[in-house]
Specification:
Layout (H helix, E strand, L loop, with lengths): L1 H11 L10 H19 L9 H8 L4 H17 L6 H13 L21 H9 L10 H11 L2 H13 L1
Length: about 160
C-alpha cells in the first residue's frame, strides 16, 4: 500500500487542494480508489466482497476525507499569511462576497445569471463544519474566536503559570 500511496494517490490528487468537487466527482474518485485497492488485494468482481471490507483490510481512508484535509491545510496557510499577500486578499474577497458584500463596494456589480458555480469556500465550510458565509472577514474577530477554539488544557496551564508568577 505504501507504493500505491506514493505513486498513485500523490499523482491522482495533485492540486486537489484547489478543486471544487461535485458529488459525481467524489463518487468517481472513490470508485477509482476502491478499484485500485481491489486490484492490489487480488479481489475480483465474482468474490462479492463489499467496499467496507476492502477499506477495512487496507486501512486506507476515503478520498473525500483526504482531499478535505488537504484543502483545510491550504486554507490554514492562506489564512495565516500577511494581509498584504495577494492570496490573503483573494481569500478575504471570497469570504466577503460569499457573505453578500459587494466587492469594492461598487453598486453596479451584479452576479451572473443562473445558479452560481460551486465555490471553494463552500467546500471549506463543508470540510470544517464552520460557516464563514455569515461573518465578514476580519482578522480582529478571527483572533477573538481563536482562544475559544483552543483545548481547555492549554487554557488552564496558562492560568496556572500566571498564578505562580
Amino acid at each position: 500500500m505504501w507504493l500505491y500511496n506514493v505513486l498513485v494517490i500523490s499523482v491522482r490528487l495533485y492540486g486537489s487542494e484547489t478543486w471544487t468537487l461535485t458529488k459525481a466527482d467524489e463518487r468517481r474518485l472513490e470508485a477509482f480508489h476502491i478499484n485500485c485497492q481491489r486490484r492490489i488485494l487480488g479481489i475480483r468482481w465474482f468474490h462479492f466482497v463489499t467496499n467496507a471490507s476492502v477499506t477495512s483490510q487496507t486501512g486506507e481512508e476515503d478520498m473525500e476525507s483526504r482531499i478535505g484535509r488537504r484543502r483545510l491545510s491550504v486554507f490554514g496557510h492562506v489564512r495565516r499569511l500577511p494581509e498584504a499577500t495577494p492570496a490573503h486578499s483573494a481569500l478575504r474577497l471570497a469570504v466577503n462576497t460569499r457573505a453578500g458584500y459587494r466587492p469594492d463596494n461598487r453598486p453596479e456589480w451584479k452576479r451572473r445569471r443562473g445558479r452560481p458555480c460551486r465555490a471553494w469556500m463552500q467546500q471549506i465550510e463543508e470540510d470544517s463544519g464552520l460557516n464563514w458565509a455569515f461573518t465578514r472577514y476580519d482578522r480582529r474577530t478571527d483572533r477573538s474566536v481563536r482562544p475559544r477554539l483552543r483545548p481547555t488544557v492549554c487554557q488552564t496551564s496558562r492560568t496556572d503559570r500566571s498564578d505562580r508568577l
